[in-house]
Each structure stands twice: as C-alpha cells, then as structure tokens.
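Handout, tutorial session.
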Amino acid sequence: MQTHALPPSLHMDQVSGTSLSNCAFVVCRVFGDRGRHPDTSDAVLYATGGSTLRALWHRAGWFGPVWCSDDGTVFAGVHDELGIARASDPPGTLTRVRAPVTVHGVWGLHARCVFAWGRTPEGRPAIAWWDGNRWSRHEMPGSVHALHGLDASSVYACGDAGLIARWDGAAWRPFEPPCTSTISSVHVLNEQRAYATAEGGLLLEGTPFGWRVARHEKVELHGLGHLGDRVIVAHGTDGLVALTDAGFEVVKPKLEPRSLDARAHLLFVSGSLLLETSDGVAFRGISCETVAPQLASMGRMG
C-alpha cells in the first residue's frame, strides 16, 4: 500500500514589532506526527515593512528570541550569535554578530540600545548590551528570563527565584524578591508602575521602590502588555484579559495568546494566527495560511 507523508503543521511561534506593517515573526513547521522536535521541525523568520513581507532566515529546529525595533531592524538570537537585518538592507541580507553570552533572550529600546541575556562562556548568568557597534557585559545574580522598560534609566530584568533588577543607566540594582518563583515576563506601564508574571499564576506589581504580589490565579499567566492605560494579560484559560480593580475582565476569549508586544499596537500570536489590536475590540492579523504557499516552495531544513 502506498503511503503519503503528512503535510507539515504550521504555527506562529513569536512576534515583535510596533504593528502588523512593522514587525518580525517566526513560523514553525512540524513534519510527521512526532510533535515539535529539532529533528522534525524547521522555522522561518519573516519581517514586514508596509505592505511587503520578506523571509529573512530559514533554519532547522527553531529560532531563539526575536525582537524588532521601531525602525524595522530585526534582531534574532541563535546560540551565541545575534542575526541583524535592517529594513534598508537588500533582501536576504542578514549580518551575524558574535555575542558575549548564549542568547536566551533579546529586547531593546531602539536599534542602538539592545540587550541580550543568557550565560557567559563560563556558565554565569549575564546581560550584554549592544550599542550598534560593540558589546558590554554585566553579570547578574541569577538567570534572566525577560526585560522591558521605557528609557535607558528604567529597564527592568526578571528571572529565577523572584529576581527583579532595575538598570539605572550604569548598573543593575536588584530589588527584594517579591516571591521565590521564576518570573517569566515583565512590562513597564509608566515611570511609577510595572507588572510581571511568575510561575504559579502570580501577577506582580512594582514601583521604583519595591515589588509585591498583586494577584494569585489558579492558572498560569503567559505574558503582559497594555492597551492605553489598561494592563493586558495572557491568561491560561480566559484568553486575553484586562486587569481591573475587581480582578480580570475578558477582552478576547478562546485564544492562547503568547509573545505579547505592546507599543503603538498590541501584537501577539495564538496558534496559527498573528494578531494586532489597538483597542481590544477590533482585531486583524496574519494567518500561517498567508505564507503557506511560500513555505511549500522551501525545502525542509535539517
């Protein structure tokens, strides 16, 4: 009996940017029925610019972290390298820069103020700062999982065992840990208010003076953002929710939001969709089906 290979399953892995017309996102393909595994998967990094869509990088397995600056410069971490693609570069151009850490995460304020975090060659946790030409590195008291901030003097890092530290422009200043759980996301709303999510359904609230547990949910919380002055949370069962004085208010149910990025618009991925909203009412997006014909023409990597 003749058998036919199953078509690969597609899903959106992550997104970063200011809007659907200025962002970078990753589409993963999984071949066969073994599930996601480096031997059975590949991934393509895309960037949008206005109405154009370009493939930047195709590799076996999957990508590390991706961040897109306001001017459309894309930064993608793989092992100890940072791939950089500028909006003005010719199609297919990607500059690879060796980083002083294994790149577990990347985030920035702009294209000349980019932070990459991970571990040094000696295995110590550290954050490296890229100014567009060279790196500087600062060791950290624990592993870092996320960064966010509004300017170079108020960037927050969070990570293992309740680690939260603030960059004041010269050094990282740790806070008294508000919990002992791993903190996986952080979002700075303004100079006086920031929020973070931690394992065990914890929502943390912080100021320049300290942090506390604000809510304890029975399900995990998977990320943070904002719409106007509303704090938006990726909720484990209720989809996209907004924080209110009484608790959480559902904004968009029946989603599994991940990889939230809130700037001019709120961007996030959910399954095979990349979605954007500016008010929590109207949503538009890109589906994996949009790029499926192009993906079908690409050979399998790995």
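The second record follows below. Compare its token runs with those of the first.
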Amino acid sequence: MPQNDIVMIGKPVKDMYGASMGKVLGTTTEIDGTIQTVGINCGSEGLKEIPFQQLVVQPDVVIFIPEWRLDAQKMIREKELTIRKLTALMQIISENSNMQSDAEIIHEKYKSKWNSLQETEFTIKSKLEDRITEITKQEQSIKILLFDAKVQAKSNEITHDTFNSVQNETDELLHHMQHEKAEIEKVREKIDNMTLDGVCSDVPDQAVDTSCAKQMENDEVPEPNLPEPPTMEVNSDHSNQTSVVTHDTNDTPDENVESSDWLNRMHSS
C-alpha cells in the first residue's frame, strides 16, 4: 500500500505488548511524500515522534515496535548469514585446496564483519540490560501503588470497587511488562548461543581437515525464531483477515515466519 494511502491520524497507538501509548497526531514526510516520522499524542508526556519503520499500521490500531527489538533482529540475521558464509567457505577450501589463496581474502572480509557484529552485540546487550532495569523499576512502583491502594481500601479511604479497578489496571500493566521481559530474555539467549563454535574460523596453511568439514556439514545454523511483526494477512479477534502495512526496508522479516501471539493482544487489550 502506498504511504500516501495510509490512514493513521487519530488512531490509538499501543506497543506490541498491549500497553496503550496515545493517539497518532500527525506525520512528517520527505520531499517525495514518504512518511519519515509519526507524532504521537502521549497526553501529559507530550508529543513523541517515532520513526515510521518502528510502526505497524492496522485498521483499528497502530502498533509500536521497540528499537531494541529491530536492532537485535537485524544483528541476529547478519550473524547467522556470516556463520553460513564462513561455513560454506571452509567447505569450499576442504574440497579444493588450490583455492586457498583466494579464500584468504574472502575469509578476512567475513572475519572483519563478524568482529564488527561482536561490537554491535555488546551495544545491543547493554540496551537490553538497561531496558530490563527500567521495567524492573516500573514494576516496583506499580506494586507499591497497588499495595497502598489495598491499605486505603482496608482503612475505608476508598471503596472496594475502586480498589478492584486499581488492581485490574495494575495487573494489566504488569502483564504487559512481563511479556516484554520474557521476550528480552529470549533475545539475549538467542544472541548468547550464536558463536563460531564448530566453524573453523581460521583458514589453515594446508587444506582443511576432513573431519572439520564433516562437522560443519552436520552443523545447522538456527533459524531466527523471534516473534515477527506481521507482514501478511493474519487472523484477529475482530476480523477474519486483517491487512497489515509493512515497510520496504532491508530488515523486513521473512513472510514465511509465523507471527507470535502479540498481535492478538492488540485487540484483546
């Protein structure tokens, strides 16, 4: 769908864990008309401008994808591709040792890319840790507020109906935060498991040992299994077929990856 045909102004915005963020106030565009950022009215927090590539537009809601998630997805895909390329390179050398001199140049290129990704990984892990710390502090504040409301109910400062309303709202917020923390842990585990173990990462002076090549043939690079923003029609509680707007970027998830249950939370929240 052309960006000019996207109708989002006035729509509610939620993060992908179901928490409400505000409403779309307007957009800024490039000179060719493509949407650059989307302004979200966040009430007392004021206006937040979000890059358009971090949003998924649906008929009844606009979904916000956190930056850490997009960065982690991109890095994971690049690491997996680099592992596959290094594995393929070592297999080629094992089959034809005469190509070793040519392979050394390519090998240095892949190793340089891997080292660069290791630096990116450190930065992303730091962002994930900061986000976990932030969520933990928010959870503590919510629990204190809930406990104080319980004390007020017991001392007849507020009615039990009011306390139940407070509890329902805080339970929903905590539920959203638990979803995000669980996904962050999943991403961190995925990153930690991505190593060059089992891949002969150095081009030897002689042909690669046959046993090493066989080991690489048996090693399978894990496919990305992070929940993906939807890139095709999906089922929801409100419609049988929901058309989802995607963005033409190099980081667009594969269409064959099954989307997680986070999309359904947009409609059930």
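Points raised in discussion: The first strand starts at residue 12 and ends at 15.
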